[in-house]
Design a protein that fits this description.
- By secondary structure, this protein is of the alpha/beta class.
- It is globular.
- The protein has a six-stranded mixed beta sheet, sandwiched between helices.
- Helices cover about 35% and strands about 25% of the residues.
- About 25% of the residues are buried.
- A hairpin with a 4-residue loop joins strand 2 and strand 3.
């Protein structure tokens, strides 16, 4: 996983040492993650815009806010996720992919944070 630290490695490392809140956008394919202190970007679409990298659309990323203890996954399955027309199957794929990709990112980052799912639709537990 290619990990981009915004605005710099030093700023992110200082935030980690102080256990400040962080945000990350992790690509659905698990190849790219962008991470920053919350105070630097505020929210995920802003974080992706600030990187200046072309083609970064927030709909293509899992979004988390986290620290060393907890990680909140801001659950928002895009309607075009993996071009799966059936909403139940699409939510199931999104959920499964997120449960695989987000913890992988956290471990690579050096955190073993408890994962909380925010804004998940009630029927997600029917899978």
């Amino acid at each position: 996983m290619d990990m981009i630290r915004y605005p710099s490695d030093k700023v992110v490392d200082d935030a980690v040492r102080s256990d400040k809140p962080l945000i990350a956008a992790i690509s659905h394919d698990g190849f790219t993650a962008v991470v920053a202190p919350l105070e630097e970007a505020g929210e995920h679409s802003m974080l992706l815009a600030l990187t200046g990298l072309p083609g970064m659309d927030v709909r293509d990323f899992f979004r988390i806010s986290f620290n060393s203890l907890t990680a909140d996954w801001h659950f928002g399955c895009p309607p075009e996720y993996k071009d799966i027309p059936d909403s139940s199957k699409r939510l199931s794929a999104y959920y499964s992919d997120g449960l695989r990709t987000i913890p992988e990112f956290l471990v690579m980052f050096g955190y073993f944070s408890k994962l909380n799912i925010k804004n998940a639709p009630p029927d997600i537990w029917d899978f």
